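To the team - S-adenosylmethionine complex, inputs and output below.
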Amino acid sequence: MIASKIFPYSLTLLLPIVFTFIISNCRAEEQNVNPGINNYYYDAKFEQWLATFESPGREVYDKKAAIVREAQIKPGMRIADIGAGTGLYSIAFAQQTGEKGLVYAVDISPDFVRNIERRAKNQGLKNIKGIINNQKEIGLPQNSIDLAFICDTYHHFEYPLTTLQSVYQALTSGGKLIIIDFKRDPHISTPWVMGHVRANKDKVINEVESIGFKLTDDKNILQGNFFLSFSK
Ligand SMILES: C[S@@+](CC[C@H](N)C(=O)[O-])C[C@H]1O[C@@H](n2cnc3c(N)ncnc32)[C@H](O)[C@@H]1O
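Output:
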């Protein structure tokens, strides 16, 4: 009699703990979905990649103004540019968010991060902070950002669910996640994209929503890339 009264109560208390344990262990066991894809980035040299990332003919370079406009950056925002590369968007966002805002330029390549900071300094931008991260987390504290921006980088994530979990934790409640990446569609994509990019748009949406994000927008402003917005 006493046991039956106590048991449901303790079960109620235990269930969330058990579920959290199961979920965190599933995440810990995520397999590398892209082994080797970033080998050339870990010791990448900024000068060698500048022309690749910041030259006409690359859609996310050519459409930078439209992308920044659609990202709806507001003064004072705290933004993480995850997979910042040579800083194409970190610099643009820092100009928009102003002195009261902050842009974290997050990348696995130390030379990219160092050079983004140098670039920012040369341009008198004091609101960019470089973060050298690893393949499993973005290296930012809980509730530290209002916007996570991932351009041409999602397909480079080796542990996408684990990394997304870290993005989720870093965002404030109601915070926004933007993912821009190659459309992977056998009818329109080049053989290179089909071989290089792991997931198509629907799969990306499924993965991101499995973490707890909600799809809020799918902007049709690019040809070879999709532009998705999610909220926490
Ligand atoms: C194709 S570049 C895109 C750079 C930049 N976003 C742009 O569009 O110009 C991909 C970048 O993602 C970085 N990267 C790969 N995996 C990453 C991860 N898990 N976290 C942060 N950066 C990552 C690479 O070092 C590289 O700088």
